[in-house]
Amino acid sequence: MTIEEKIINKIKEFDKIIIHRHQNADPDALGSQGGLAEVIKAAFPQKSVKVVGEDVKGLKWILTEDEVSDEEYADALVIVTDTANTPRIDDERYDKGTCLIKIDHHPNDDAYGDILLVRPEASSCSEIIVDLVNASDGELSLTKEAARRLYAGIIGDTGRFMYDCTTPHTMRVTAQLLEQGIDAALVNRKMDEINEAEAKLSAYVYQNLQITKHHAAYVIIKNAVLSELGAEDSGTAHVVSLPGRIEGIACWTIFVEQEDGTYRLRIRSKKPVINELAKEYGGGGHPLASGARLEDASGILEFVEKLDDVAAKYTEEK
């Protein structure tokens, strides 16, 4: 029996299904979580299927979370999408159900769950959800709403097909979603849309970007800057890719100060592998897109030096 068949059997077995995703959710986390929920609801309308997690400002057009009581986890199937490790799961009640399934496309460093469907070669977790539907022999099927959410997840994690994770299979899956009649142009516009504060933050990033000797780049965004610009931490998602547009930049990091004085690190790369560096700082992720945290600003310089070393090693290997 394949892993996909085991997951589908569990979906059929349980009357209550609760779907989680990772903290600080991005379009793929929301798209895979919400897309899977819609697929299950369409196939089994008698089941209770709910999605949980903190609201994400600016992405509520993808899905709206449900209110779920502690009691609802009794005898429930819990599925976690797009989340590499347990500390990143949004809502700590993920382990309160009867059975736990992990569906993910990050390196499987934390093999949690009773059933694991992990494919790091996939462009996104949303792509894996479509593959799960296709492996169900017709027991699951796409709806227009599921396709809209899954499309948002795929274009989010592929940078609208600009990133190396895009494969021929990704494009075939995307075509399948488009065939459901979704308004892809509208989703693309929503993904590209920024507000005035985020536009000002974009300008701040370019004006304050620092470039190291070996073409790594970084910018530090303090809480005071966010307040002055009227921006929020969630808005920094829109500026993560900006340094990569500069010719010659190999890898980069956006340091975002949190309210408690810690720093959230958004780490990206064009080619050098940066997820091993992220792991040194309590994070992880994909080879070219990872996250980590620092306890305070004192660790920034050391991190930048290591990021520069990553860029230097890549340059030497070329």
TrEMBL record:
Residues 16-154 form the DDH domain. GO terms for molecular function: nucleic acid binding. InterPro entries: DDH_dom, DHH_sf, DHHA1_dom, Oligoribo/pAp-PDE_c-di-AMP_PDE. Residues 228-312 form the DHHA1 domain. Coiled coil: none annotated. Pfam families: DHH (PF01368), DHHA1 (PF02272). This is Phosphoesterase, DHH family protein.
